[in-house]
Please model this.
Amino acid sequence: MLIDRRAFLKSMGLVGASSIVGCKGAPLEKMYAYLTPPEDIVPGVAAHYATVCRACPAGCGILVKTREGRPIKLEGNPAHPVGRGRLCARGQAFIQTLYGRDRLAHPLLRSDGKLVKASWKETYRILAGKLASAGDLGLITGLESGAFEDLIADLAGGFPGLSHVVHEPVALASMATAHGILFGSTEVPRIDLGSVDLVVSLGADFLDAWVSPVELSRQWSERHAFDAGRALRMEYVGPRRSLTATAADRWTRTPVDEIGPLALGLLWELIDLQSSSLPGPEADVVASAAQALGPRPGLAEEQAGLVRSLAAKLSSADQGLVLYGGAEVLTRDATAIHCAALLMNRLTGSLGRALRPGQGYALSKVSPDAHALELIDSASSGKLDVLIVAGCNPAYTIPGVDADKLERAPLVVCLAYERSETTEMADVVIPVHHPLESWGDFAVSHHVHGIMQPVRSPIFETRHAGDVLIQLAGRAGRQTSRKTYKDYVVDRWARRLEADPEAASARRWERTLVAGGVFEDEPGAVAVKPVAASAAGQLPEIGAGAEGGEARLVTCLSPLLHDGRGATQDWLLEVPDSVLQTAWEVPVEVAPDLARARGIATGDLVEISSPSAKISAAAFVNEDLAAGTVAMRMGGGRRSE
Model:
């Protein structure tokens, strides 16, 4: 048979797609001969789209490189003020979750104890009936900051019995609580190292995974670099050598139970040196608050010397900042220690400059873990008719949540784009779009608003989580004010752009999509309320020291796996840890004194147990751990099947 050149080339345009149709697990897609490509695609020429990274709660701006309609690379967005073109390893690898083997492709319903494939029609029919008759509902979501909040407010109007909790593991809820006690507003201040010349970090690993590591490491490098005169110095106090401890000018290895007394001692030293910097009445209030946190502690000589040294440096610095709160140092005294840190920053003048309240920082919206656990307990005891979990994995990240507890709940619905411990315990699993397939937005603060746009068509039979909630509410007879989630996004941004007479145009909307959002200059300093006179009566006392036990387990966020959400990405698993240089596993780090006492060597299989759980993992004798300490990074032990 003869074939002309044109027909031959057309057929060759289909070879790449048709050759993989038979591959097991490969999603079927429409095939196009790129001799006649879609209007918005130029074969061989990459297109870039601005959106927001959702690999962690920091909300960095990213540029997605696509070829022939498929995302192939993520990079930082130079226009976005959080990263200024930088992106961490988690952000770079986030694209792997779009094509990951754990993606959910269709709805699942529990039948005879197992999750089985179901149709969207059947799933909606079952859920609509349950929601129509439901009285009290629980909704646990990950951190969302933007149009999703408008949708939740709409749903709360239609479902008066709805209780909503924002869950983000190891966030700064204790810091927000402390700020509420001292200054009357429960919020997390915006952190800015841009004008700081000394940071005293009490376990706050801001170069690893704490708060917004891309933004804070950028500010650190800009101020600490040699060509900047090394204007910013850092003193790090903590139980384990992290990347932040390694980068510090001085790292003091300190057991986690000694952090609280050390912080209290440092506060008293600063009161002696700096109380004259405050108005007379407020100086007395600060002293009363310090007394409520505890009397001046009796520290060992080495610690007392460290406290005097740190206090002198903070007192002489133009702007000294005290940060507390990395996962490895959070104890039951976390709120009290945050209060001490905030009082110290009030004394040094950093509160209002390096720590700026009143900025609408997104992390202020996170609820304490106890609130999410209370909601799950209410569902387990039958007080909630339906529990919906969307965008988080509480079965892995909250201690005390297990299959037995969720099995007792009348109905657990999980909205997710990939399998997780929570989806495996749910009664109904609804597959939703990946963030790179979704419309949305994320407001880091009042001044930084990032917009999300889909950078490709959905790979699987999924829907946006917002659209699922809208459609379910409608079928249950509780109509929302908008028909689609994209309508919520467009309406919110239309209001924002219309507030600026020069911005209300289609051209401005296009520029906003290209830029990745609307970014305003953030204030260099803000006014700060004085410490509330009533604070002393509400402050918890800082514990005296060790809480007992032969060994102290500390857990820390992984710079690569974060709280475990990165553990489904092989790219992150194969990257060596920046300090330990281990890969593909999360070892149990053991202090040398414990290793000698127990006869443990690196590579031995050890077991860690508590009254509620136990795990086994390979040991790693870590010379850079405080005495009596056992450490483990989060992210290991993930199970989704």
About this structure: The CA atoms of residues 272 and 311 lie 10 Å apart. The chain is about 35% helix and 20% strand. The two ends are 52 Å apart (CA to CA).
